[in-house]
Give the backbone structure.
Amino acid sequence: MAKTPEPPNGYALDAKGVWAGYNGHAALEGVSFRIEPGCLAGLVGPNGSGKSTLLRVILGLHKPWRGEVHVFGDRSPPQTRLGYMPQSEVVDWSFPVTASDVVLMGRYGRLGLLRRPRQHDRDVAMQALERVRMADRARRRIGELSGGEQRRVLVARALAQEADVLLLDEPFAGLDATSQHDILELFAGLARDGKTLFVATHDLSCVAACFDHAVFLNRKVVAFGRLADVLNEEVLTATFERHLLLLNVEGKIYAGHQ
Amino acid sequence: MPGISDFFESVREPWTLEFMQRGLIAVALVGIVSAVVGSFVILKGMAFIGDALPHASFGGVAAAFALGGNLYLGGAIAAVITALLIGFISRRAGVKYDTAIGIIFVGAFALGILIVSRQSGYQVDLFSFVFGNVLAVGWDDVWLIAVVGGLVLVAIAAFYKELLFIAYDPSMAAASGLPVAALQYGLLALLALTTVIALQTVGIVLVVAMLVTPAATAQVLVRRLPWMMALGALIGVVSAVTGLYIAYYGDVSASAAIVLTATGLFLAAFLLAPQRGLIIGRVPQP
């Protein structure tokens, strides 16, 4: 693994020996990794590998037993530096709110208690919706949107937080290939804009297609770094606890079962 | 045309009586506050606690009655303590939320029955709390309902943004730095106050209907929470007025008539809503 010098503003994410779990059962066992700013990084692992727990630890929603995660060198980063997109399945899609209502919620953390959203907040929310090409759906009730559109609304909410680091939990799950492709393209564009994206997923094909970096997690970090350096069959076998094949077709890497 | 003037006379007649005026104001206010608070109740799946708090408040009402204190105050204290205990137990004891509700509210209700069973003779005052007695509401009750209900509405308006966020997506709200636990306790306390002011108008057994039915009817018809609250409040008031007419001319229980009117409006919306109704909703939209 090639050693790169530490970025001038510090690593976007720097996890140092994180142990965490529930009711005495460890979900994360000494997790350490670093993510450079401005890259599209995958957090890859099977179900139950601790991906969501790790995101909750980074967000400060779950207290680790030991260890810590620094965000741009900060031990306890201001919440405004971190944007978050929860798993789609934990979101209540029958709730009576419109797409723009949901995106505006991304501003609430910055506003603080009792203060109402101002025109500036509405402008930021609208720009976020435009960025994910959902501006024409702004007034739709969220339950009326398609799966891909719902996912883009959640991304827009994370963007409206105006955070440097976006943590996204399973943004591809349950989407058809076209919608997955749209979301991937959107992520790549955001990384080009300088955002750092840390995307939890169990979908290897999405990661292999266009991610820069990846952390392979199975309660412990199996490997992390540039995808070209760490994506090999040995790492995949250790991460998913089964043998996976890697195919290199015209410079594109595909992962699959035997 | 005597027919028409007769009709207008019978529309006007009930409201010439002061007890009908008081009852209308009280139950209309209760309808408005209940629908606004009830919107959060149904969106968060809190209907069970909406039923539990009025029952639990009976313990406080009975205790206040036995001690010669203010019945509303006793009920309010019991309801708020119950709400906070339920939140506390489900957070700390590893018991599921609805189990905690079941344990606590039945205990408080049983305490009320125990106290009442020690009192000599049947107490009309107490039973107006159990089954509701809109027409026995006094002006002091109306004032109390107006002041407490007004405070509940002001609190919800002030914290609307936060309450919306924690109702819709609590984990994201916590990640944004909002004090989620405090806000959830606060919402429970507002719910407790709402159930107490609803007690004497519709009674312990029917309070949950005022919380749930108008808001649910509105949810079928509109697409945003502020409109759901506003329409729910209007449906609450319409149910109150219609129910009082039915009670006046039909000589039936006012609280039952009000609740059944609300139920009827829900069924109408359920069947006929333009987008999601059972009948009209089936017609393909252009």
In short: Chain A is about 30% helix and 30% strand.
